[in-house]
Amino acid sequence: xxxxxxxxxxxxxxxxxxxxxxxxxxxxxxxxxxxxxxxxxxxxxxxxxxxxxxxxxxxxxxxxxxxxxxxxxxxxxxxxxxxxxxxxxxxxxxxxxxxxxxxxxxxxxxxxxxxxxxxxxxxxxxxxxxxxxxxxxxxxxxxxxx
Length: 146
Fold this sequence. Notes:
single chain; alpha+beta; CATH 2.40.50.140; 2 domains; five-stranded mixed β-sheet; 3 helices; about 45% helix; rod-shaped
């Protein structure tokens, strides 16, 4: 067992983990996993070329698996229309009248808010659901009876 080779691999692993913590790039953690596999290969007494091969296969495989997992996972909605980010999404407001430009002022949460019609067709007075928030303007669509 060559301790200097395994020590170098562990140092590379630590640097990669620190770089991942500083940048937030999860892919660096997968590459660090490959470097840790290289360190284990060094502890097992494998030659340098086999250590590099093990590190490349483990790191590359982990990176490819993570990339594939991210591609298969559903994308979250943009922040302006994501209910997890803005709890106003999905709430209802009553629009008494619309201006010609598709805007209105409505009372919501104890204040007067600007709303803009974002639904299909022409805006009509009545109950509307907040579908997005852009700045201080609520984007609304007609409420459906469910």
